[in-house]
From TrEMBL:
InterPro entries: Peptidase_S1_PA, Peptidase_S1_PA_chymotrypsin, Peptidase_S1A, Trypsin_dom, TRYPSIN_HIS. Keywords: Disulfide bond, Signal. It comes from the Eukaryota. It comes from Lingula anatina (Brachiopod). This is Chymotrypsin-like elastase family member 1. The keyword Protein biosynthesis does not apply. Transmembrane segments: none annotated. CDD domains: Tryp_SPc. The keyword Signal applies. Residues 1-20 form the signal peptide. One of its GO terms (molecular function) is serine-type endopeptidase activity.
Length: 205
């Protein structure tokens, strides 16, 4: 038997052993836990406003990332007590987060470089940002890329950045990537979208 034929038969044998149940459990944009979506007849449906939104179901937006800024570079200090939650982001694959460039703008009078990768943690699988949770995965930022055309003097102009995690995220019921794709011509700005993150659901709360 020739090596080519042997390799072909081996490949065919391997393919024949793959069952439908062996397909990946987690697919981008398909959370295992269904989110609350807009329904005109549902009193618990999400608000149409960004301010004073609605509490999400735990794990229903598994691509949501929490960005924490390290106040101390001491590696022995716990993440929760040595950092503050400053921004949100979105998991686009197991290694990369997309977020807003303005998160890394320096603050007047603060002598800290906000574009120093060592200063940032990324947490996935989070629900309560103020508590340690069994579903969370915490990463350091290996690389921080701010879009070159970002212009902080023009609000939200090219306001995008990418973060590479120091390790690949594990896909779980609470950690999954969002799908990236192109909108068909003429559809831009005409889709119903959902905005997620941590904020106030009512005044002062």
């Amino acid at each position: 038997m020739s090596p080519t034929l042997a390799a072909t038969l081996l490949l065919a044998a391997c393919i024949s052993t793959v069952k439908p149940d062996d397909k990946p459990k987690y697919k981008c944009g398909n959370p295992i836990i269904s989110p609350l979506l807009r329904d005109a007849e549902d009193e618990e449906a999400p608000s149409l406003r960004i301010v004073m939104g609605t509490n999400a179901r735990r794990g229903s937006w598994p691509w949501q990332a929490l960005l924490r800024f390290r106040l101390s570079l001491d590696p022995t200090r716990p993440v929760l007590t040595s950092s503050v939650a400053l921004c949100g982001g979105t998991l686009v694959n197991k290694d990369w987060i997309v977020t807003a460039a303005h998160c890394f703008d320096d603050l007047p009078g603060v002598d800290i470089n906000f574009r120093d990768e060592r200063r940032w943690y990324v947490q996935l699988g989070k629900y309560n940002k103020n508590m340690q949770e069994s579903t969370e995965q915490t990463f350091q930022v290996q690389k921080l890329l701010v879009y070159p055309k970002y212009n902080r003097t023009v609000r939200y102009d090219a306001d995008i950045a990418l973060l590479k995690l120091n390790e690949s995220a594990d896909m779980t019921d609470f950690v999954q990537p969002i799908c990236l794709g192109k909108l068909p011509p003429g559809r831009r700005g005409r889709e119903l979208c959902y905005i997620t993150g941590w904020g106030d659901t009512e005044n002062g709360k």
